[in-house]
Design brief:
The protein is about 65% helix and about 15% strand. It is of the alpha+beta class and about 425 residues long.
Length: about 425
C-alpha cells in the first residue's frame, strides 16, 4: 500500500485481489465444482473400513439370582457397495451439476466485470471531482481578482465603476468559495467509494490518482444491430441464465424418472477380519413403481416443469432488458463522443471571451456585469468539458460491460 501514486491499472488490480464480492463469487464457483465432483463420485463404488470396540455388561435379576453377561471385544472389517445401474438418475444429476457449474462460472465472470466497471466509474468520478475542484479553485482566484479590479476601478481616485459593483463582486467571491467547499466534499466522497471497492485501508489516504489523458480520437462502434446481436450472445449473465435453463431440463428429467418405474442394480460386499472371519456378497436388482404416494412424486415432477417454464420466461425477459441496456449504452456512447468535441470548442471560445472581458475591465471599458457573465460562461464551459470527458470514458466501459466484452483489468484474473 506504500506508494505515491495510484493508476487505474493499480486500482483494478487491487479490486481483483481485495474485493469481497469477487472473492465470494469465485468461492461459489469452487463450491459448484465440488458439487460436480460429488455427482461424479456417485458412479464409483464406496469402500468403508470399520473398527468397532464394544464393552457390554448386562445384569438380569431373576428368582435364581443375578445373571450377568459381559462382552468385551473388537470387530474389524469393511463394507463395499456399488450401484451399477439406475435408469439414468445419476447421469441426470451429473449433467445438471455441470450446467450449474457453468452457470456459476459465468456468474463469477459477470461479478468480476461488474466490479471492474465500478472501479472504472469510481476512479473516473474521483478524477472528475478533482478536476472540478481545480475549476472551483480557479473560480475563487478569478473572483478575487475581479473584486480587486472592481475596488480599484470604483475608488475615488479612478471612479470608473459605481460603488455598488463592489458588493456584487464580493457576493460572487463568496459564492465561488461555497462552490469550492462543495467540490472539496465531493472529492472526499468519491475517494471513499473507490477505497471501499478496491479494499484500500480506511485509515490510510489514497495516493495521488494518475490523470487520464483527454480523448482525441473517437472511434465509432460497429452498427447498432450488430452490437446488440453480439451482446445478447456474449453477455456472461445471459449465458449463466441459459445454463441454468439447461440444468433445469435435467432436473425435470430426473423428477419424471423418479415418478415412474425405477430399476436399480447394486452390488454389496462386506468382510469381517476379527474376531471372526465372515464374508457376505450380494447382487440385488430392484424394480419399483410408486403406485400410490398421495401424488407427491408426480406433483414434484410438475413443479420442476413449472420451474423450467419460469426459467425460460425469465431468460426471455432478461434478453429484452439486455437489448434495452445495449441500445441505451450505444446511444449514450455516441452522444458523449459528440459532447466532448462540442464542449472543447465551447471551452476555447469561453476562455477567449473571458480574457477579452477582463482586459476591457482593466481599461475601464466593460462593467462588472460583463466580466461576471464571461466568468460564469467560462466556469460552465470548463465544467461541461470535464463532465463530457469523463462521461465519455464511463460510457465506453459501460458499453463493454453491457455487450459482454472483456473488461480492462480482467485478463490477469
Amino acid at each position: 500500500m506504500a506508494q505515491d501514486t495510484l493508476t487505474l491499472d493499480d486500482a483494478l488490480r487491487l479490486a481483483r485481489e481485495n474485493n469481497g464480492s469477487i472473492k465470494a463469487a469465485y468461492y461459489d464457483l469452487d463450491a459448484a465444482k465440488a458439487r460436480t465432483k460429488q455427482s461424479i463420485g456417485a458412479f464409483f463404488p464406496t469402500v468403508t473400513p470399520r473398527l468397532e470396540w464394544n464393552n457390554t455388561r448386562n445384569v438380569t435379576d431373576n428368582s435364581l439370582g443375578d445373571s450377568i453377561f459381559k462382552d468385551d471385544g473388537t470387530t474389524t472389517g469393511f463394507n463395499a457397495s456399488w450401484k451399477i445401474f439406475d435408469l439414468g438418475l445419476r447421469q441426470y444429476s451429473l449433467l445438471g451439476s455441470r450446467r450449474s457449474e457453468d452457470a456459476t462460472r459465468y456468474d463469477a465472470l459477470q461479478t468480476l466485470r461488474n466490479i471492474l466497471y465500478t472501479v472504472h466509474q469510481q476512479f473516473y468520478d474521483a478524477l472528475r471531482s478533482e478536476e472540478l475542484l481545480r475549476v472551483s479553485e480557479k473560480q475563487v482566484e478569478r473572483s478575487q481578482k475581479i473584486l480587486e479590479q472592481t475596488e480599484f476601478g470604483a475608488s475615488d481616485e479612478i471612479g470608473a465603476f459605481p460603488k455598488k459593483d463592489i458588493l456584487q463582486a464580493k457576493a460572487d467571491l463568496l459564492n465561488a468559495k461555497v462552490e469550492y467547499l462543495k467540490s472539496k466534499n465531493l472529492v472526499a466522497t468519491s475517494e471513499a467509494s473507490l477505497k471501499s471497492t478496491i479494499g484500500w485501508p480506511n485509515t490510510k489516504e489514497l495516493p495521488q490518482l494518475v490523470k487520464i489523458d483527454a480523448p482525441t480520437d473517437f472511434p465509432m462502434p460497429p452498427p447498432r444491430d450488430q452490437v446488440v446481436e453480439e451482446g445478447l450472445r456474449d453477455r456472461a449473465d445471459l449465458q449463466a441464465q441459459r445454463k441454468r435453463v439447461d440444468a433445469q431440463v435435467f432436473s425435470v428429467k430426473r423428477a419424471d424418472r423418479e415418478a415412474g418405474v425405477s430399476l436399480d442394480v447394486d452390488i454389496n460386499y462386506s468382510r469381517d477380519f476379527s474376531p471372526n472371519h465372515n464374508e457376505n456378497r450380494n447382487l440385488a436388482l430392484l424394480v419399483t413403481y410408486p403406485l400410490f404416494d398421495g401424488g407427491q412424486l408426480r406433483e414434484a415432477a410438475r413443479a420442476q416443469k413449472f420451474s423450467l417454464e419460469a426459467a425460460r420466461k425469465d431468460l426471455l425477459q432478461a434478453e429484452r432488458q439486455a437489448t434495452a441496456e445495449i441500445e441505451s449504452a450505444y446511444a449514450e456512447f455516441v452522444q458523449n463522443a459528440e459532447r466532448v468535441a462540442a464542449a472543447k470548442l465551447a471551452l476555447e471560445a469561453a476562455q477567449l471571451n473571458y480574457e477579452a472581458a477582463t482586459e476591457s475591465q482593466k481599461e475601464g471599458i466593460n462593467d462588472l456585469i460583463a466580466v461576471l457573465t464571461a466568468q460564469v460562461s467560462l466556469v460552465t464551459a470548463e465544467s461541461n468539458y470535464i463532465e463530457a470527458t469523463f462521461d465519455y470514458y464511463v460510457s465506453d466501459v459501460n458499453l463493454r460491460l453491457v455487450t459482454g466484452k472483456p473488461m480492462p483489468g480482467e485478463a490477469n484474473r
